[in-house]
Amino acid sequence: MDDMRTEELFKSLVGRRYTIRGFDDFGQIELRPKRDHVVWIETDLVKLVRTSR
Predict the structure, then answer these.
(1) Highest-scoring range by mean pLDDT, 10-14, 28-32, 46-50
(2) For the chain, what are the domain ranges?
(3) Cα–Cα distance for residue pair 51/9, rounded to 1 Å
(4) Contacts of residue 13, Cβ cutoff 8 Å, sequence gap at least 6
(5) Do 32 and 22 form a contact (C-beta atoms < 8 A)?
(6) Starting at the edge strand that comes first in sequence, how are the strands of the sheet with 29-34 ordered?
(7) Own/partner pairs, 37-46, CB within 8 angstroms, 24+ separation
(8) What's the pTM?
């Protein structure tokens, strides 16, 4: 059982836009989709989207 609800969190990320907060020593992207959650994800699993200003 996943007490941290990791699968639910990852499913909620799909198709949404987040600001990159940083990179770790391995080049993985740091995202903070919720105030108390940090997600590290490989760069080849995300797509860069530019915001229009």
Answers:
(1) 28-32
(2) 6-45
(3) 24
(4) 31, 33, 39
(5) no
(6) 22-23, 29-34, 37-41
(7) 37/9, 39/9, 39/10, 39/13
(8) 0.68
